[in-house]
Design goal:
mainly alpha, 2 domains, single chain
């Protein structure tokens, strides 16, 4: 069981203990017992020596457990940052320095970025001039950059977290650029950007929240005007940005706790050496046992002769 798992578990219990301790103090302070029962004298403090034996023992037990949880949480937190990289192994037992491959096509923000790319191409063909307007190229390239950098960054992440974070940062910046272009279009045309309690925004947000593939959007695009398409694209951009921000933060924490390719190479090499040492020791023990068995059999043959 890892220190991180223990820390999370005991922090949860520690929160419960804090709640119960606060409740006990509040109850005994503002609601003292009226009839002075023998087990709970009036105005008894949390650890008052005049309290009844049963209640006194229960409070002591609770405080000891509470203190134990604090000590365990502290000890776990001391080892929280000492997480070693998770090393995978090939079928023959050889350690691998590569991280587990990310199937980027299954990432929700990548699927939404693909929808954005298809939607942007359609939007530019319908409502923007093909020639003489650089906005078309910029919007299409921004949408493409978002999608392609997510794919490239996720693939390169097997060997380099640094490269992965850089490319994901570029993808997030391209997504922001695309969102700005759609917002500028709405301003230029005098349309309103949907947000907040707007009923149209709520329906649009719910649809985009639970649909990630272009096939779900394609039947609707032919019926939508430029205002609706632009607001749909902005909604998707916000969702991609929020998901990517959380994903980048998680990758950043992984790099901080586990390190990069150099740390993985060191851990894999040390793990391989430890495996080799254990294999040599096991073989040496087997050879010693076989020699003893040979000597025993020789002794038996000599006794029969």
């Amino acid at each position: 069981m890892s220190y991180r798992f223990l820390l999370q578990r005991y922090k949860k219990y520690l929160n419960y203990a804090n709640i119960f301790a606060t409740f006990f103090k509040f109850f005994l302070k503002y609601f003292p017992p009226r009839n002075n029962p023998p087990l709970l004298p009036k105005k008894a403090g949390l650890l008052d020596d005049k309290a009844g034996p049963f209640f006194h023992a229960m409070v002591k037990l609770f405080c000891i457990s509470f203190g134990g949880l604090k000590i365990i949480a502290y000890l776990c937190s001391m080892n929280e940052d000492k997480k070693t990289p998770e090393i995978r192994h090939y079928d023959d037992g050889t350690a691998s320095v590569l991280r587990k491959a990310v199937v980027y096509t299954e990432l929700r923000f990548y699927q939404r970025s693909d929808v954005l790319y298809q939607l942007t191409q359609l939007f530019c063909e319908r409502y923007l001039l093909r020639y003489g307007d650089r906005t078309v190229d910029q919007m299409v390239q921004a949408a493409r950059s978002t999608k392609q950098n997510i794919a490239e960054g996720s693939s390169d992440g097997q060997t380099s977290t640094e490269t992965e974070l850089k490319l994901l940062g570029i993808a997030r910046g391209s997504n922001k650029e695309l969102m700005e272009d759609y917002q500028d279009y709405l301003k230029r045309k005098g349309f309103v950007e949907w947000f907040g309690k707007n009923p149209r925004f709520e329906r649009l947000h719910e649809f985009c929240k639970y649909h990630y593939h272009y096939d779900d959007y394609q039947p609707l695009l032919a019926k939508m005007d430029d205002e609706e398409l632009a607001n749909m694209a902005i909604c998707l951009c916000h969702q991609v940005d929020k998901a990517m921000t959380k994903y980048i933060e998680r990758k950043d924490k992984e790099f901080t706790t586990e390190g990069g390719i150099r740390e993985r190479m060191t851990a894999a090499r040390l793990g391989q050496r430890e495996t080799q040492r254990q294999t040599i020791e096991r073989q040496a023990n087997e050879i010693a046992a076989l020699r003893k068995e040979v000597e025993r059999l020789k002794a038996l043959l000599a006794a029969k002769e």
